[in-house]
Amino acid sequence: MAQAVNVGELTLPQLELLKGQLDQEVEFLSSSIAQLKVVQTKYVEAKDCLNVLNKSNEGKDLLVPLTSSMYVPGKLSDVERVLIDIGTGYYVEKTAGDARDFFKRKIDFLTKQMEKIQPALQEKHAMKQAVVEMMSQKIQQLTALGAAQGATTKA
User: Which of 98, 107, 110, 126 is spaced 20 to 30 A from 144 at the CA atom?
Assistant: First the structure.
């Protein structure tokens, strides 16, 4: 368990180290949220693509992506079943309805994970701000002390 430390009791070099650590933590949490949003967006897009699968589109020509920039012509032959990527190169055949449910569960899970991380990120931001303010106060105190000592040595 981490102990609470009064930032007012820390020296300027200690505050700088603490700020650096908080910067790293904020960066890590921010990048985690960004990665979760990217994955969530992919699931939302996949779920939206299922809306194209209906009886009126069965038998229509389409382009099947082989890579992000290469497609081959194809025909939509079955609108009831789809293959979905469940991770690490594994695919599962599901009905369109089951696939929608799968994507909804994944989207909800990712949303909950982001909601768990957000308060920690806000707390780290607040801590970092408090450290920066304390550093500013310490620098002002040192500047004022140096100016006062300089004035007394001239007198």
Answer: 126
